[in-house]
Amino acid sequence: MKNIWVVTTFLFIFMFIILIFYHLYYRMNIKHITKQLEEIMNLKDTNQLLTVVAKQRDITNLVNQLNKLIRDIRLSRIHIKRLNKNFRQSITNISHDLRTPLTTASGYVQMLQTSVTEEEYKEYLAIILERQNMVKILLEQLFEYVRIESGEITYEHVPIDAKKVLVDTLTMYYDDFYKKGQEPTVHLPEKPCIIQGDEQAVKRIFSNILFNAIVHGNGGYWFEIHEADSSYIFTFSNLSEPMARDDLDYIFERSYTKDKSRNKKTTGLGLTIAKEITGRLNGTIEAFYNNGKFSIYISFPKV
């Protein structure tokens, strides 16, 4: 009986010692993790992750989950930083684009207040009206983009004839092509091109792309609709100045323009809006440049 008591006491003491060691290891791991976590959170630019001193299943699982959270936080920070940078650049670009025509118009208004000939008066007035219209377009684009981004605008998904929409939109810009001395080449299928979408939204897409082509294109306008197996592909092409790969990568970005001096007549919001609407109508839009020709391809699923 005495031997049993001795053995039992020994086992109890042994288990107690193991429990103490396990607790100490546990606390050591927790302290180590806490210290690392504080260091990581205080360092902005680091790829460091949490490690464990002694492998314990529950602690290891906890560290793995914390490391996953740390990675997500880092990616969120990078994304937010990029968004803030783009937002600041957009505000700068938009401010410049609005200020430039207003400054020009103001200069011509002052010139009108001096002694000018009737011919000069008409010329200056036409320039002022053009700059006024430019500001109006910029503000409308900005307002529309904000409404799209906020989800304020909703689009129908009903069967429409996209070929008819394109023809109507091309007709709207006939005078603009005529003033440039250009007659676009247009190839359309004989039958209607029925897609699921919103007629006004599709017209806005085509209008923004055509406006961009007129402002930035150097002629050689080519517009066509190609029928694929499960979709209709709309091609908008024109001659263009040389474009780098970066131009194509960012051409649909908010307030992006190829002209770094920003002397062009648009902020780039037009193509951004076109991309946003296309995506919401389950379509795709891409830009390509090859041998002096710039092209935008839009694809919408057939009905």
UniProtKB/TrEMBL annotation:
What does the record give as EC number? 2.7.13.3
List residues of the Histidine kinase domain.
93-303
- SMART domains in the record: HATPase_c, HisKA
Q: Which residues cross the membrane?
A: 6-25
Q: Name one GO cellular component term.
A: plasma membrane
Its name, as the record gives it, is: histidine kinase
Q: Which UniProt keywords apply?
A: Kinase, Membrane, Phosphoprotein, Transferase, Transmembrane, Transmembrane helix, Two-component regulatory system
The question of whether Transmembrane is a record keyword is answered with yes
Report which reactions are catalysed by this protein.
Answer: ATP + protein L-histidine = ADP + protein N-phospho-L-histidine
